[in-house]
Amino acid sequence: MFLVITGSRSEWFILKPVVQALMDRYQLKVVVTGSHLSRVAEYTAKFVEDDIGKDNIIYLHTYVDGDTLVDRAKTMANELFSFTDLFSYIQPKGIWILGDREETIAAATAAVYLNIPVIHLAGGDTVFGNVDDVVRHAVTKLSHLHFPFSKYSERVILQLGEEPWRVTFSGNPILDDILKTPYMSKKEVCDILGIPSDKELLVMIYHTISLDKDSVAEKVRDVLEAIVDFLSNRILVIIESNMDPGSGIIRNIYDLYIEKYAGRILVFNTLTRGVFVNLLRHAKLLVGNSSLGIVESPIYRIPVVNILPRQQGRLAPDNVIFVEPKKEAIKAVVERILSDDDFYKRLSSAQSIYGDGHAVDIIMDKISKINFDDVEWKRRLLEKKIIVREGI
After folding, report:
1. pTM, entire model
2. Residue 158: what pLDDT?
3. Fewer Cβ in 10 A, N or C end of the chain?
4. What is the Cα–Cα distance from 203 to 185, expressed in whole angstroms?
5. In the predicted model, what is the mean pLDDT of residues 36-49?
6. Cα torsion at 135, 297, 44, 214 (round to 10°)?
């Protein structure tokens, strides 16, 4: 049996197409943990339940509700204990993890100590100024098979000393999911959201940064103040941030702006996948600092204004403009995008650098060539060697 670990909404939407493909060929359970089970996050485990059914889920309640650095560290500690007990009981043939959150490193650590192969998706990305970057690279060294989402990330993993046979560039599976998501008209989306369909839609997703938690309030206000001048004939739809340290501060600021700009700014904790994908299909612009803007936006044909320092250092397509977290700088870029048709067309025609919507096929092809039940194969997976490359 394989176990797939998911702890957050955004993580699940990337994992979902891989999980569905694995379920067609292997015995598998999905471990739902972390903020999925948080009351503040409105129980995003419901998305997993809707996609694969409760019978295929194992629930681990490990999350410490709160938005401090201590709460996040305690959550990771809880997960390490819980994963150790779970893995030792089930003895999975391998675990699947994604990215760089606390459940990722906790699961990888427990698995390594229990001689269980670790399959890691989305390693090798580089993002400065956040603890996620350190965690991601640590997880790479704890993992036995790697599916990076870009050629650049593949190169980073190799530079970290991983053996080439372990590393396979797949692209991001979420692109597979987006291409298969049924189309909804703008009117259908707006009716569900309760907003008029004759207005242009701007979307904002802004997450905290672990090293800048104390200044998050000022930065969020600057972003909002830069946008409000453009809302006379537009509506700003905000999707709330991840459950990271400082997220509560962001929510409080949103409440103030919802009241002040009633009808022009709307905030949603989360949306169903179909509504979310189609919202972005019809949006004029995405503003914030979510990795979604880097990885997924070209497939939506949407320009992105990414607020630094989050995502700094990450490989980005040509539709993404990085801007300092200052009101006037943000406002100038937004104004140009919304007023310069040629500039808008150039940005919205950018090509994806994170795959072409066939990631699942690549991943399944690689996995099908490995016999996880064979003793010699398992030994080969677990006995990692460090490859020293000259001139790096």
Report:
1. 0.86
2. 96
3. C
4. 17
5. 84
6. 50
User: Does position 392 have pLDDT exceeding 60, yes or no?
Assistant: no
359's tokens? 């990631």
Within the chain, all domains assigned CATH 3.40.50.2000 are found at 2-171+358-382, 183-348
Distances (CA, A) of 124 to 146, 181, 260: 9, 28, 42
Can you give the pLDDT at residue 211?
62
Instruction: Provide the residue type at 170 as one letter.
Output: S
Note the pLDDT of residue 209. Answer: 74
The pLDDT value given to residue 339: 95
Q: Which CATH class is domain 2-171+358-382?
A: alpha beta
- Hey, what amino acid is at 153? S
> Does 183-348 carry CATH code 3.50.50.60?
no
44 vs 7, 34, 198, 344, CA distance in Å?
A: 9, 10, 31, 34
Q: What's the whole-number mean pLDDT along residues 306-331?
A: 91
